[in-house]
Write a structure and sequence with these properties.
- Its EC number is 1.5.1.2.
- By secondary structure, the protein is of the alpha/beta class.
- The protein folds into two domains: about 5-160, NAD(P)-binding Rossmann-like Domain (Rossmann fold, 3-Layer(aba) Sandwich), CATH 3.40.50; about 170-265, ProC C-terminal domain-like fold, CATH 1.10.3730.10.
- Helices cover about 50% and strands about 15% of the residues.
- It has twelve helices and eight strands.
- The protein has an eight-stranded mixed β-sheet, with helices on both faces.
- Bound molecules: NADPH dihydro-nicotinamide-adenine-dinucleotide phosphate (NDP) and (2S)-3,4-dihydro-2H-pyrrole-2-carboxylic acid.
- The site of NADPH dihydro-nicotinamide-adenine-dinucleotide phosphate has 26 residues, from α2 and α4.
């Protein structure tokens, strides 16, 4: 992060809920001065003001960055109430809302859409970013550095990929948490104490995810390494990989529904 630039001109964060709050924590941990941050949120958590961040106070005249982290359904009202972005880089994490919509609200402004996910709260998010025509290399670098405060960043070649990204990695933690819930419940149904089943399920998802990241490449190879011929895994996978009732078609429908909702939110 270009801390000198941000600390001198200031950063405005509109919406300090789960995602805005995680970002703010990441920025402060990276050394952004609390006095340089101006939060607008009628319901900001108490820790924000306690850290010395201005909450619903006067805004700087020419902030370096305006970050939008309100629900997409609120975005129209928020944009109408904000006025001009002056020379600020606009960064929005909202699902669905398009670069064109921000361009109409802030004519001529550099705008970057970013799609993070909730592991950002522990610095392990993955964020995809894409900018409008006005977002030059410096603007994209600044947006990337802001999002790298909470994890890794990938750049998209085209905004049209954003709804799919939202459906895979933005919403994805919820799918994984549901996998943990259902794996634990199934373990309990097989006779395990519920807390042990949950511990086993959570640790298995964490470990398998870490192994997949470390090994890279095709996860099918890792799956095959677990699967002994005629063993327990093969018996389980015969259900999970059923071409009609298994996880493949279910996840395909899940991601398609989430992406379609992203497109709807952008209307
Ligand atoms: N949660 C997630 O996993 C992800 C969310 N996102 C995106 O992040 C954005 C925020 O989501 P999330 O953090 O989950 O939502 P939250 O509801 O947790 O946070 C939104 C915050 O904005 C506040 N707010 C409401 N109206 C206004 C307003 N007019 N001006 C300023 N602040 C306002 C809300 O207050 P109040 O509670 O009183 O309404 C709340 O504190 C969404 O656009 C979402 O698409 C992106 C990736 C992942
Ligand atoms: O559910 C949502 O709409 C937001 C976007 C991605 C994750 N949460």
């Amino acid at each position: 992060m270009d801390l000198a630039h941000l600390n001198r001109r200031g950063l405005v964060l509109v919406g300090c809920g789960r995602m805005g709050g995680a970002l703010l924590q990441g920025w402060l941990a990276r050394g952004l001065a609390p006095g340089a941050v101006h939060v607008i949120d009628p319901n900001a958590p108490a820790w924000v003001a306690e850290r010395g961040v201005s909450v619903n106070g006067a805004l700087p005249a020419d902030p370096a960055v305006l970050v939008l982290a309100v629900k997409p359904q609120m975005m129209g009202d928020v944009l109408a109430g904000l006025g001009a972005a002056s020379g600020a880089l606009v960064v929005s994490v909202a699902a669905g809302v398009t670069l064109a919509a921000y361009g109409r609200a802030f004519p001529g402004a550099a705008v970057v859409r970013a799609m993070p996910n909730t592991p950002a709260a522990i610095g392990q998010g993955i964020t995809a970013i894409v900018g409008n025509a006005q977002a030059d290399a410096a603007a994209l670098d600044l947006a990337q550095s802001l999002m790298e405060a909470v994890g890794r960043v990938v750049r998209l070649g085209d905004e049209s990929q954003m709804d799919a990204v939202t459906a895979v990695s933005g919403s994805g933690p919820a799918y994984v948490f549901h996998l943990i819930e259902t794996l634990a419940a199934a373990g309990a149904a097989e006779g395990l104490p519920a807390d042990l089943a949950l511990d086993l399920a959570s640790a298995t998802v964490a470990g398998a995810g870490a192994l997949a990241m470390q090994e890279g490449g095709d996860p099918a190879r890792l799956r095959e390494a677990v699967t002994s011929p005629a063993g327990t895994t093969a018996a389980g996978l015969s259900q999970l990989m059923d071409p009609e009732t298994g996880l493949g078609p279910l996840i395909a429908r899940t991601v398609a529904a989430a992406a379609a909702r992203g497109r709807e939110l952008g209307q």
